[in-house]
Input
Amino acid sequence: MTKITFMGAGSTVFAKNIIGDSFLTESLRDAEFALYDIAADRLNESYNMLNNLNANINANRAKVKPYLGVKNRRAALRGADFVINAIQVGGYEPATVIDFEIPKKYNLRQTIGDTLGIGGIFRALRTINVLQGFVEDIQAVCPEAWFLNYSNPMSILTGYLIRKGGLKCVGLCHSVQVCAERLLKELDLWDKYNPVTWKIAGINHMAWLLEISKNGKDLYPEIKKAAAKMNRAARKKDGKKHYDMVRFEILRHFGYYNTESSEHTAEYHPYFIKSRYPELIEELNIPLDEYPRRCIEQIEKWHKMRDEVTNNQKLTHDKTNEYGSRIMDSIVTDTPREIGGNVLNHGLITNLPEDAVVEVPCLVNRNGVQGCYVGDLPLACAALNMTHINVHK
Output
């Protein structure tokens, strides 16, 4: 029987996505799911929800068991084949509030603060302390397990887990698989060209859409023309703003579209959030303090939907686009799949450092997750990636 341990299982909605997908995957239907968290109420909510889901869509074939607190962590991990990590250390309060409010006193502004800069660095520091305990337990009771990391800052944490922890690990983000579709939908080109072929590589939250085509036709010329036209109109005084203005500026100046959102991208570069040019914030529709605002909205939304999700005996699930269940299925059944994953470079992107964590196409089969060769990135893209990699190190 396959054993899957979910660290941070109190993330109820995300646990539903990953484990619900697993309930709908034939090779994982009979798996044992160990739910680990340090918050009793959140863990109990996820446990109730997954029991209902297991009954409704999986005929109770899976075994689901909760494990509360550090004293039970090693038991949760013992014998695991896969470990899914979705922890956020410190939560919204106090950690996220501190990450934003202290820098703000010194006129240092952020949008998301989970990847780089002040917020990203401090999130990494407090999370690595917890991951160190995970690593010690995994090496003791399930050293061959594959560790699927969903926690940010992705590159820093994944690098720690592989380089220092010695784990079999891949970092997983949502931005790769939705990048091309969202770009084309924003430009009203999706219906015209769907489905498309694309290639993405770089680093997490700054990977590059290197190629996008339809039946061999390069779509970038049309995309660039449409994006430039849309941004010119939006930047006018009374122009209609849209959510992707910063990324379209990166596309205009550097020639390639990047995977993560404009609100993320705005704080990754020294070009947009400028104390001497505050007009750029409004002109480019940059949402300062966006992540704390989202946290408040999500907390309020969760309070309203908690009973509907956790105590709904008719709860069901539609499979998501998350890679987690697909990776586990490919390793268990030796079914080859391609995903976008974060792994050590080792020559995959030839103009980035060997020991950097890169986001590249990966082959998944019984041998695990294996990064695929990309070659050189465009010089400007590699240079922008290096501004992040230097901080990661």
